[in-house]
Structure formats: C-alpha cells, structure tokens
C-alpha cells in the first residue's frame, strides 16, 4: 500500500518535471525566433546597398527641396530682377527728392549768412578806430574780454590742426601754417572729387555696353573699376585685389565684351571660377552686360550631363565660364574641342583656385592653354599661391590693390558673441527670431551641421533652406532661386555660398562655426555689398578664442561685442531650442548610414 509520504514525493517530482518541460519549450521557441531574425537581417544586409540609401535620402530631401524646371527657374530669376529694378527706381526717386530739399535748405542758409556778413562788416568799420589803450593794460595784458576770446579761439584752432604741439608760438606764425594746411587739404579733396566724379562714359566704353549699364542701374564706376579698366583696354595682364562686393566681375567682363564687338571669335575668353553657383552668376552678368552685342556664352560645371555640355561647345561659343575640373575633362575627352585661339584667361577667386583642391588641375590647364594670351587674376585676398601663379603665367602684370591683404568694407558692422558651447543653438534661435523680418545667411564648416541647422530652424517654425556640396545641382539651384525670390529668409550654407554670390538683400551674416581669416572675409562679404550697409555676427565659444584673436590680428582691428540682445532674453528660448534640437537629431538619425560612411563630411 502507498503511504502518505510516498504520495507527497510523487507530487513534488511531477511538479518539478512539468516546470522543466515548460522551460525547455520556452527555450526552443526563443531559438526559433532568433533564427528567423538572423535570416531576415542577412537578407536585408544583402539587399541594403548605397544606391538604396541614396534613394531614400533623396526622397526625404525632396520633401524639403522642390525640384524646379529650367522654365520655372527662369521665371523666378525674371521676377527677382523685376523686383530689384522696382526697388532701385524707388530709391532713385527718394534720392532726387532729398537732393532737391537739401539744395533748397542750402540756398536759405546762404541767404541768411550773406545778411549777417553784411551787418558784421558795417559794425567792424565803425569799431576799427577804437583806442588801443582800452585794450591793453600797463603790464601788456589784454583787458577787453571780446578780444581775448578771439585770440584764444584762434590759438585753440591752430593747436587742433598741428596736433597741440606748438602752443607757445606766435599767433601770426600759426595763422600762416593754418592757411597752408588748408590749401593742401583743399587740393587733396579736389583730386578725390575728380576721381569720384568719373563716369562710365569717361572710361571709353562702347555705347552698347553703356546702354546695358544704364538698364542695370549702375551710376558710377567703383574704385577698382576706375583703376583697372584703362589698363584692361590697353590689353595688359592684371592682378586685381579688392574687397568682396566692390565690382571685380565687371572689370574683366567689360573689356572682353568690348573686344568681342570688333572680333566675334569663337572660344575667345575662358573664365575659371571655383564653384558652380559662381559660374552661373558670372554667365548671367555676361548676358546682362552683353545683351546688345548678341554674344554666345557657355557655362560648364560638374553635376550635369557631359554630353549635353559637349553639344553646347559644338556651337562654338564666344565665352566659356567653367570650373577647372570640368574644362579639363572636355579638353581631354571632347573631340574637336581645343582652345588654341584663346585670347583672354580669367581666374576669379584666384586664391581659392590655387588651393590644394584645384592646384593640380590649374597646373595642367596652364600647360594646355596657349602662352600668347591676356591673363586676369582677381581675388579679395592675396596669398603666396597667387604670387606663385603671377610668376608662372603673367607677363609684366599691372597690380591694382584697392584694399589691404585682409580687409573688410567700411559699411560693414562687425560684431562677436562670446558664449558657452552648450548655449550655441539657443543664441542662434534668439537671433533668428530677433531678425525675423530680414534676410540672413548662416555659415557652417561642414555639410552635416548645415543640414542639421536646416532641420533645427524648420522645427522652430522659421523659413530656412540650406546650400551645401552634397546636394544635387538642381537642388542647389532651386534653393538659391527660392531664397532670391524671398520664399525663405534664412539660407544655411557651407563655404560653397561664401564665394562671389551676389545676393542683394542680405542684411545679416552669422558665422555659426569660426573659420580662417581668409574665409571670414569672404563670408562677411555676402552683406554690405556695393556701398550698402550690413552686419556680421560671429559665435566665439571657449574653444574658439585663439582662432578669433588670429582673425583680429590679421584684420588689424578689434571687432566689437554684440549688445543688441540680453542674456536673460536669450535664455527664454532655451526650452524651445532643446525640443527643436531633439527633433532635428531624430531626423538626422534617420539618415545615419550616410553619416557613418562620411557622406556629409567636409573634404580635406
């Protein structure tokens, strides 16, 4: 018979056996799940190529970037030009009204001064025979207060002119010096006035180009244009150094067009620039200035089908505007294309063209091109590489240097903000909201930060668009055109947008990442162009102090501190910025495979 103890033991063993069976069953199920997951991952990894990544990325970018047709781009350009012309006409009308008011005020003042002068002459004639005894004391000191004040005033004026050095000299001696200095000052001002009053007609420019200049609304030539154009018409090699926005492009376009009026030769001039956007802008300037001359211009750059470009070259254009790499490809691969009859070679932004990225292609180009040509070098900064190129390809060049090696325009207000790194985005958001009604360019050092800032600004509800080297050519053009038409008021750009781009309505430039002095000059030059005013704001963190001091040293001036915003006002945006940053980082992580493969890193 079964005892009570045996029954309990059997129950205990059966209970444990059931638990063991359930545990083994669960293990088997987990193994099956893991095997299925591994198989799925293998199939995904086999099919997950870079092509699929790029397709997904393009789809996401197309949400932010509308791809425009060529016709739409032309319409946008026409609208933009029409708006600019309207603004210029309004400015002209306002200036004319102000001039008339100023003239009327001057006439009134002159009438009042003439009346006072006549009254003073009558009073002086009556008091001319006043006794000298009333004026002088026994000790020889002046007693009449009015005479004493007159002498003291004359003495003070003289000391101001001479640097307050010779206070003990006779008054008569000082008065003679004052007259001489006054004559010299008047002579200098007259010379400057004569230079400033020079018009485009005085520079012997042909009527067809003068008509297009009038249509563009250019009134007077800039300083570098006054200096360079006479030498360019004499067909001399030229090195032109001037600040950004001073009108360097017209210095080489006008002489080339004037020669083409006489000799309409194919492949007459080659203009080389470092970026695609600058190529397009230069070709637009050629078309604008040469609208009355019927000249064929061809633009060549990367990111576009090489076959269509070779078909355009087969039409034998008069002027070619190109990047250095693509023109070399055509010279080596396109049949029947050569530049044996080239007359003009222009290097725009020469310091950038002679950097490590383009140096080898420029050297190859110089070996292919004919030696009997006219060469122009234009840049905002003079470097050692530019000096080397001067020796290599220029013959007895004329150097025209309007500015120093490192200098900015006088109409530009340069400021900086010293801030901790963790509050960098909060300061940016507060600045964007502070200048919400104005057009802003934000410069970064890498494509990844430009893309991140674009997501960040859009999450804040701001109208922003970005421009960097990893976008397709169509996307880059559409982003520029949409910014020109004021669809967006914030453009976030890498160094691609820092060179040569003439965007007229920009009031604020923000340097989100600090850069070298040479790049700083080009970035800051996007505002305060052609005599207009502008402001630049540079972010300086605790890690950027040395670089910032180096910029100040090379510019030979101290940059002012930005005082338009208080710290308390800035910190009000902190929570909002943290949320916008969180969302932008999520959007960036969706494309993390691209960042792992260094797709968006800046090229060294």
UniProtKB/TrEMBL annotation:
One of its GO terms (cellular component) is cytosol. Residues 105-118 have a biased composition (Basic residues). Residues 229-400 form the Helicase ATP-binding domain. Pfam families: DEAD, Helicase_C. Residues 427-571 form the Helicase C-terminal domain. Residues 198-226 form the DEAD-box RNA helicase Q domain. The chain crosses the membrane at residues 6-27. InterPro entries: DEAD/DEAH_box_helicase_dom, DEAD_box_RNA_helicase, Helicase_ATP-bd, Helicase_C-like, P-loop_NTPase, RNA-helicase_DEAD-box_CS, RNA_helicase_DEAD_Q_motif. CDD domains: SF2_C_DEAD (cd18787). Residues 119-141 have a biased composition (Low complexity). SMART domains: DEXDc, HELICc. Residues 87-141 are annotated as: Disordered. A motif (Q motif) lies at residues 198-226. Keywords: ATP-binding, Helicase, Hydrolase, Membrane, Nucleotide-binding, Nucleus, RNA-binding, Transmembrane, Transmembrane helix. It is found in: Nucleus. One of its GO terms (molecular function) is ATP binding. Belongs to the DEAD box helicase family. DDX47/RRP3 subfamily. This is ATP-dependent RNA helicase DDX47. It comes from Plasmodium falciparum (isolate Camp / Malaysia).
